[in-house]
């Protein structure tokens, strides 16, 4: 593993390289590499999640003094969700550096997206521990907050479930509801398949690492069907 290269990619040189290695260690790697001297990254991911939310919240609070709490909450959710973090991780080619089992490497499901997003949070946690708040803030601003203007311009921060409910109640006079159709994978990396129904009719399905994200994806798919005229009663 070329740890010098990944440090160039993220734009930060670690004083304690073990923190970087821990951030890149997926739980599954330990099952096949019993002599690995570091823990998996879930604890440091927990820290990184909190650091990310604080820094994004601070940025929004300082930049948008005239906006409501609800608006800022929606924007923040768009910046820190699994899809956004995984896309940033993919752009950084982070998957090349993650230590995981051969089975996880072969897996092309939504679980891979979850691994990328979780590793991004772990990376942020490791930077915070190694270089402090300002180091983490610079990384987040350069790689995540940079997407803020596009989110606002595209209005992608609007909750798809709320938008779908508004449209469906107007068009079909019913309230959409959601049902988990399947859940796969181990407890720490579940992938949920969720269906959205208009009355008794299954309209669209979505997958995600949580029921909530599965519902969001299903709502987006249903909105696409409505907007394209493909949703017919």
UniProtKB/TrEMBL annotation:
Signal peptide: none annotated. InterPro entries: dsRBD_dom, RNase_III, RNase_III_dom, RNase_III_sf. Its EC number is 3.1.26.3. GO terms for molecular function: double-stranded RNA binding; metal ion binding; ribonuclease III activity; rRNA binding. It is found in: Cytoplasm. Its cofactor is Mg(2+). Keywords: Cytoplasm, Endonuclease, Hydrolase, Magnesium, Metal-binding, mRNA processing, Nuclease, RNA-binding, rRNA processing, rRNA-binding, tRNA processing. Digests double-stranded RNA. Involved in the processing of primary rRNA transcript to yield the immediate precursors to the large and small rRNAs (23S and 16S). Processes some mRNAs, and tRNAs when they are encoded in the rRNA operon. Processes pre-crRNA and tracrRNA of type II CRISPR loci if present in the organism. Homodimer. Belongs to the ribonuclease III family. This is Ribonuclease 3. The gene is rnc.
């Amino acid at each position: 593993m070329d740890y010098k290269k990944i440090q160039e990619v993220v734009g930060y040189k670690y004083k304690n390289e073990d923190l970087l290695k821990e951030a890149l260690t997926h739980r599954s790697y330990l099952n096949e590499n019993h002599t690995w001297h570091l823990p998996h990254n879930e604890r440091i991911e927990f820290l990184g999640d909190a650091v990310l939310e604080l820094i994004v919240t601070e940025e929004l609070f300082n930049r948008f003094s005239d906006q409501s709490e609800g608006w800022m909450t929606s924007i923040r959710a768009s910046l820190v969700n699994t899809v956004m973090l995984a896309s940033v991780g993919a752009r950084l080619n982070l998957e090349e550096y993650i230590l995981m089992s051969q089975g996880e490497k072969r897996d092309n499901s939504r679980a891979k997206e979850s691994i990328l997003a979780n590793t991004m949070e772990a990376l942020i946690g490791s930077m915070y521990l190694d270089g402090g708040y300002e180091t983490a803030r610079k990384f987040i601003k350069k790689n995540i907050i940079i997407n803020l203007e596009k989110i606002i311009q595209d209005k992608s921060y609007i909750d798809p479930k709320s938008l779908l409910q508004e449209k469906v109640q107007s068009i079909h006079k019913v309230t959409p509801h959601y049902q988990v159709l399947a859940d796969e994978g181990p407890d720490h990396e579940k992938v949920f398949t969720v269906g959205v129904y208009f009355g008794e009719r299954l309209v669209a399905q979505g997958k995600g690492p949580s029921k909530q994200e599965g519902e969001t994806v299903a709502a987006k798919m249903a909105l696409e069907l409505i907007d394209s005229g493909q949703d017919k009663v």
